[in-house]
Amino acid sequence: MRAIAHKMDIMTNATSEAMPSSKSARKSVHAFPRLPGGHLLFGHLPDLKRDRAGLQFRVGREFPDAVSLRFGVVRALMIGAPALANEVLSTKNASFIKAPGLTVFLRPVLGNGLLTSDRSFHARQRKLIAPAFAHKRVASYADTMAERARSFASGVRSDEVLDVSDAMMRLTLEIVGKTLFDAEVGSDADEIGEAVTTAMECAIGQLESFLPLPPIVPSPSNVRIRKAVARLDAIIYRLIRARRDQGGDRGDLLSMLLAAQDEDGTAMNDRQVRDEAMTLFLAGHETTANALAWTLYLLAKNPEARAKVEAEVDTLGRAPSYEDLVRLPYTLAVLKEAMRLYPPAYILARRAVEDVSLGGHLVRRNTIVLVNVLGLHRRPDLFPEPERFVPERFLGDEEKKLPRCAYMPFGAGPRVCIGNHFALMEGHVLLATMLGRLRFELAGGADVELEPLVTLRPRGLRMRVHVREAQN
Length: 472
Ligand code: HEM
Hints:
It comes from Labilithrix luteola. By secondary structure, the chain is an alpha+beta fold.
């Protein structure tokens, strides 16, 4: 395995030049192995529909570097070699845009925000929004995060059984509501959460459908999306209007979005602010909630690691603040290792806008390239005994020793997650605060299932929560 990865690295590093157009280079398209099986008409779409995560695990095991597949008439390539991922996301990023599935079906919900836009518009927006995620600004949100986590932890009764995915979703939704809009979304939280879930389920349903209907067609699913979006818009435009009327910097992300101007002094209009706010709102809570839910699940399965986290947070003797985080490296390592095994953004999709060479092989224009993050994070050549939960992999300098793009829960290149520091800090603060007071055990016999929607959720994760003796 190591040899294959090494060979792939050499091939990839040797081919950063423009696409060769000779006959021999064109022939090399066949060098990527093809995934066996597949329906005569639909290709591998039924496999994807039946068990998306299963397909990714299988490909990761059997074709760890790259494999070509077909979705109907659409050619696709699933890659799991770090060097290839680096080419797609970083060095040859200009040859790719976001895959149409995502943009077409998420656009009714997210509009033309950072996640769904491309090229010069995306570059401009990214530049405008970046200051909102500067280190100092992000650090200023730590108190809100800690305060919400404390209030959650103290509100739980001993022996209470929780749907942990829902609980984490609610907690991170409150936090993003406060840090994004300086608003108590408590009253709106249920409605927002429900509308977002409806819209996302419909969008993913369309994406996986044999006959996806564009958003413009008034199918039952598209009508449900439209209604959910109308409910979300009503809330978000209300918050934007109120803020424009009040003016001033409230220290939240919305203030930054409204104040942001590019070089010629142009600011965003209400629609753009709505799209970016909606994008941050969605991207900023569901992913983190899932990362936390998986972390709690893995700690319940690995009592030794749990004992280490508890010992670490207990040394503080109080609920952690931002300054305390440096003293909690194991807690952070636990979060990172959980995102290795269960990366919330488990697949990244792009479409080639021109013929491009990857690892020395021709990839044709319009090919969908899928970065199999789930498979890549379980490569035994990069992570020995990959199925084991070993937080020590992320202690000290260990992470720095990994090749580029070997660990990429936040993606890579110019489109790397803009909220990665925000998310890591939030996860760190929330875990440390919760685990100082609470211990989560699995409730019920059945193991959880992976539910790969837009992000990777644990389905039916019910946990019994005990209030610990040694408390903050
Ligand atoms: C554990 C939590 C998170 C994970 C695992 C995660 C993961 C990712 C990944 C993998 C991407 C790149 C997608 C691609 O290349 O196709 C991304 C993009 C993005 N994320 Fe996150 N994210 C998290 C938290 C957040 C938070 C807290 C925010 C904002 C508050 C956020 C906002 C965004 C935005 C706006 C983008 C699009 C960036 C662009 O294309 O320029 N994310 N995220």
